[in-house]
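Subject: mismatched residue count in predicted assembly?

I count 873 residues in my input, but I want to confirm that the predicted structure covers every chain. Input:
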Amino acid sequence: MSDSNNQSTHGMMAEFDSVDSLLAAARRIRDAGYTKIDAYTPFAVHGIDDALGIKPTKLPWITLTGGVIGALTALAMQIWMNSINYPYIISGKPYISLPAFIPVAFELTILFASFGSFFGMLALNRLPRFSNPVFTNPRFDLATDDKFFLYVDAKDARYDGEGVARLLGDSGAASVDPVVEDETPTEVPKIFFTLAGVLAMVAIIPVLVVAMMRVTTSSQPRFHVFYDMDFSPAKDAQQVTTLFADGRVMRPDVPGTVIRSEDGFDIDFQTGVDMEALAAMDPARAEHLVRLVAQAPADEAAPADEAAGDQVADAQAAGGASEPVDNTPWLQDNPLEVDAELLATGQEKFNIYCAVCHGVSGRGTGLVHLRAQRIQSPTWVQPSSLHQDILYANNYADGKLFSVITNGIRKMPGYGAQISASDRWAIVAYVRALQLSQNAEESDVPAGQRAAVAQAE
Amino acid sequence: MNIEPENPTLRLPSPVARLAMPMMGVGAVLLLVGVLLGAIFSSVEMRFAMGAYLTAYTYCLTISLGALFFVIIQHLCRAGWSVTVRRVAELLMSVLPVMAVLFLPILATLWIGEGTLYRWDSEEWVAAHHPDWLNPESPQRSKGIYLSDWFFTLRAILYLSIWAGLALYFFRLSRRQDDTAEIRLTERMQAFSGPAVILFSLSVTFAAFDWVMSLEPIWFSTMFGVYIFAGGMLSAICAITVGVYLVQAAGSLRQQVTVEHYHDLAKLIFGFVTFWTYIAFSQYLLIWYGNIPEETFWFGDRQEHGWAIVSLILVFFHWLLPFLALLNRNLRRRPAYVCGWAAYVLLMHFVDIYWLVMPSVTESPTGGVMGVVTTVLCSLGMVGLFIGAVLRAGDGAPLIPVRDPRLQESLAFHNI
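Triage response: the counts match. Full output below for your records.
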């Protein structure tokens, strides 16, 4: 860069009055074999890349790399967060759920590609820099006004000051000047360091305040930065409001609301009771049950249901406890066709909803029970073992088991609201299979698999 | 450069122009045979045949509509680069009146058959599945009214007249300018392009609801109109690219359309491939995440009985492959390469429309051998008719708007 003898020149700058003369000169310089050349114009000039012989930029590849890294980062981040570090089921989707990850992946692709473009552009142009020798000539300011400049760098292999100046002059330049050493000092001015120091000290203050707050106590109530986020104006269930005339926060169904029930509506299927037979025996109870299950019209609906449900549950489930004889005409058999698929569903639901208390084996030794024992909970009652004679199919109808799952019994809550009726029937089928599994003879095992059983023992 | 209207290199070469009537004739015959197969062979139901007709019709219609939007948007943003390719787009849109006539068979299914194509058209079906649509006291009555023969017909007439009107308006003014060179005509088209965009988007959205979405009368997606538009716009740009390339191959427009125009068309194809994917995925994501049975069944139908393969074809071959193929700038500046991918995307657009329409009509993705024959005949016939009509419109007109005030800008157009 610096010649040994005197003040060095960085290159030669030629000034032009029009786009056409600039383009013509650029082509000439290019054809003369110069490669380290550049043009400065007040606006984008079509065809200047070609005239300067500039090779296509590598920037798109940096952008592409940025985009690919962005997509991979987003996917890796979400997979790690949502399925490895903190596995969490959201909306019942799998842990690794590609569609849910795509929006974030898309955004990060764009972000990283933009970073690639922006910082790649800066890097390829060797920016930012404190100064550029081309600014030493005051006429160069006209590059943002109405003049066009062509610059040949001294680092070019073919560069010789006189020859370049002559060539540029011949190409129609209005003036040609050497670009001399930039005399702007290269050191950063002291004032910047002072300012940076002051800023750094000021920046520590909030941190110190926070640190102090952590170790001291205050009698003042907590300061709420976002008051309406700490105290949401939204109402909770069961609260009152002045917004509606009846004062209820929980709104009844709008008239005309369409009930989405399972395929068809079958009262026996929903209750586990042979309703026609019950209607013949005890019309009042049948009517009450029907009204409960079939979602009575809006005017006599909801609020009372909860309590009534408990009553009915007690009455229905009374078989074991208070009432020795249960006359209810329970459905004896599972209304669904029992096959491997149904049992698999039943097993899945059982393990989700029932096994925590009743245990995976159904012996009443689920995790909740084990924990209750460990902390010696005084109010805990051990969940029933499902492997008791009185609960087997010949003593305890399928419909009754269904009803217990639906409405609960003793300390067990009802699961009717959480598990759909067909899944409840699937659980009934699975419980039967579970019971059978504890009482199976060798002859129950298909002949082909007996050897495997023997081996397992 | 000679840009006189009489210059033969600015016109359709006569061997090509002479194909117009034969193509229309053969197209009409194929179409008729295709649909009649449905009536004759019991293995192909009439419903399937009309579904194939609707697929073929929607395919050509969306291309034509996309071309209409392309023309409108050029006027709206006063684009200079596109003038030399605008006439090809104008020819593609100028057949919208023909497309209006070709809608008649679909209307006929409403008035002649009962639920031949649209299930909601059958009173029996409505009474069995959605009695509330007929119940004056139910809020769902409005759906029954919306999906009634007469209202559907009225709306169809409205959409078709809006499109035919817009197409003829922009085509005639542009053609008149070839003779008179009035700048005022360009100003008029620019002034009308704003209202035209509004008319266009509303009518296309509702037509997409009516004609394709109502094949599943329960299903709804407010994004559906945009989805149809995205596919149509994409394929219209592809059709313009292929059209210009073929015209150049036949010897016309060699100097007027340059690599710069192909580069811009390729950028648009790339952009709209992405836009289509964006819309398609957004529609899928919302329904997938909401997971409401009334909405998910539509995608469910498209993941069963082999339709899953078609769905995956769309993901990988309607989006991923053309996306990667058109990513590189150097490749986008090769006219033959761009034309090849444009033709490819046009094929994928057919798969897309087939995937939209047919699962509502048939369980199996092909409909058996006769189903394939019906689909192919209907599609070839419709495309033949379409291309024939475009050639007929192009015969005798210069293939660039020779007196457009921005023509010089377009001829000298240069990407940086």
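The longest helix of chain B spans residues 149-180. Marking this ticket as 'not a bug'.
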